[in-house]
Amino acid sequence: MGSASLPSNPWIETPLIESSALSKAAGCRIFLKLENLQPSGSFKSRGIGALLQHSLLNHHNPNVVHFYCSSGGNAGLACVTAARTLNRPATVVVPLTTKPLMVAKLRSAGAYEVVQVGENWQAADTYLQERLLQNDEGGVYVPPFDHPEIWEGHSTLVSEVARQLRDQNEEGADAMVCSVGGGGLLCGVLLGLERQHCDWSKACKVLALETEGAESLHKSLQQGQLVTLPSITTIATSLGATRVAQRALDLAQKHAITSAVLSDAEAAMGCWRFADDERILVEPACGINLAVCYDGRLKQLLPELTPKSKVVIVVCGGSNITLQTLMAYRNDYGWIERSTTNDAEVPSTLSAPPNGCHVR
Ligand SMILES: *Cc1c(COP(=O)(O)O)cnc(C)c1O
């Protein structure tokens, strides 16, 4: 990276901070890798930024390149944001079901054009491929997760974590936690750990999380082959890939990762408790990674953890969330706080509504 011909990097180095509230809640040392601070609001700035850089560097005429993406979510935002940084246009085609909030975010991030067409993602993507991409000699297709350059870009987060732990005089992490949609992030994490060439990274456990209704990796691991879900039914829409990348399954098997499935209620709870404990707003696709810190979940999933263990949580971020949505989640799923353990040292224990009742 850092070629002289490129304006600047589409992603930034993000902080790695130890959270005392989440450590108290989880019963081990929790380090947060704050990918929510990336220019596009999620870790996708890394992988998609790397893909855009790579295609510009390898294009015979970079001055005609125009990027096309059919994700109305964080991948689309990362594409538009990175394209702006690299001074190239990006067009996003999204289905009619995409929420006005995300369309507004794509426009304000500087999309060349946002086209809303088709009933579902497939229809929008077909329109993009057949009507736009094929008629543009500079057209470059930007997929959301299934591409080696994307995994390469995501893997930079692991090299950063390794260096940041060293700088904090920590020997390494005992576990890393990330969520899985199509598995691009997981590929990046596992490839990054493979590359570290140090003892801790070989022994580091990886906990991969999905929500019920988007558990395409979990099912594939159970059956030993790629499983395609008939549909996606979860509020964690950014995890909604009906099938993971083959590479994600291969790497998950090779590294014998721990795969777990949580409910939408748990994903939502992770969002509001994280907001109360750390004052950071993330979407359910990320909240699921934080939910494991509460009420003993992490220790159930990784029983080998001790109070001295260091766990790095990838706070993957996500822009598809507002205060209003968060409050609606808390209203719908607040009952889950009935099981909240009573720990006055964890602030979100105190901000829980009495008996986990509905908030009105
Ligand atoms: C895309 C995304 C994921 C899942 O990443 P994959 O590479 O598709 O597995 C998780 N969290 C957020 C916030 C995302 O935007």
Description:
Helix 2 (about 45-55) packs across helix 6 (about 150-165) and helix 11 packs across helix 12 (about 285-290). Helix 3 (about 75-85) links the parallel strand 3 (about 65-70) and strand 4 (about 90-95). The longest helix has 20 residues, at about 150-165. Helices cover about 40% and strands about 15% of the residues. It is of the alpha/beta class and about 350 residues long. The strands form two sheets. It has a six-stranded mixed sheet with strand order 1-2-10-7-8-9, with helices on both faces. It has helices at about 20-25, 45-55, 75-85, 100-110, 120-130, 150-165, 185-195, 200-205, 215-225, 245-255, 265-280, 285-290, 295-300, 325-335, 345-350, and strands spanning about 15-20, 30-35, 65-70, 90-95, 115, 140, 175-180, 205-210, 260, 310-315. It has two domains: about 5-45 and about 150-335, 3-Layer(aba) Sandwich (Rossmann fold); about 45-140, 3-Layer(aba) Sandwich (Rossmann fold). The protein contains 15 helices and ten strands. The protein is globular. The structure holds pyridoxal-5'-phosphate (PLP). Pyridoxal-5'-phosphate binds next to helix 7 and helix 12.
Distance between the termini: 51 Å
Which whole number gives the mean pLDDT?
95
What is the 3D shape?
globular
> How much strand?
5-15%
Largest sheet, described in full?
Answer: 6 strands, mixed
Spatial order of the strands in the main sheet?
1-2-10-7-8-9
Radius of gyration: 20 Å
H/E element sequence = EHEHEHEHEHEHEHHEHHEHHHEHH
Q: What's the CATH C level of the largest domain?
A: Alpha Beta
Count of distinct strands: 10
CATH architecture of the largest domain: 3-Layer(aba) Sandwich
Number of helices: 15
Content-based structural category? alpha/beta
Helix content: 40-55%
Any low-confidence stretches, pLDDT <50, length ≥5? none
